[in-house]
Design goal:
Blueprint lengths: L9 H52 L5 E6 H6 L19 E8 L10 E8 L4 E6 L1
């Protein structure tokens, strides 16, 4: 009696399935990390664009002051067409983010725009950012 030994054994098939499962789980983990980094970069870009808008705003209005001045993002920058309304990059819902830009000039500084510090606070549904430029 002859047996046909041309197929795979159960052990070989289980080995392949285990290897594929390990590879897939590694891929899912890597993809999750990629998504988190992309979300963080989106929020950082929002903060940088707000910083640039605040700089342009102050250049246009030639604000000369000492101390601290707070600019409401929605009221001043958006109304003046310096910045689009902040939309949460994760949920893609408009009017989900708000924040302020606090501009500070050190007392006794030269008075130029280069002497300013910008503190950007962004508040979104799932993100609270607080960063200072430069």
């Amino acid at each position: 009696m002859k047996f046909n030994n041309k197929g795979f054994s159960l052990v070989e098939l289980l080995g392949v399935i285990v290897i594929l499962g390990i590879l897939m789980s590694m891929g899912v983990i890597a993809y999750g990390r990629y998504l988190e980094k992309a979300k963080k970069r989106d929020y950082e870009t929002m903060e940088q664009s707000t910083y640039a808008a605040a700089q342009n705003y102050l250049m246009d209005y030639d604000s000369v002051f000492e101390g601290t001045q707070t600019i409401r993002i929605i009221d001043d920058l958006v109304a003046g067409n310096y910045l689009e309304p902040l939309m949460d990059p994760v949920t893609k819902e408009s009017k989900q983010c708000d924040g302020t830009v606090t501009v500070t000039r050190a007392a006794g500084s030269g008075g130029g725009l280069d002497d300013l510090k910008y503190r950007i606070k962004i508040n979104c549904k799932k993100y609270k950012g607080d960063v200072t430029f430069p």
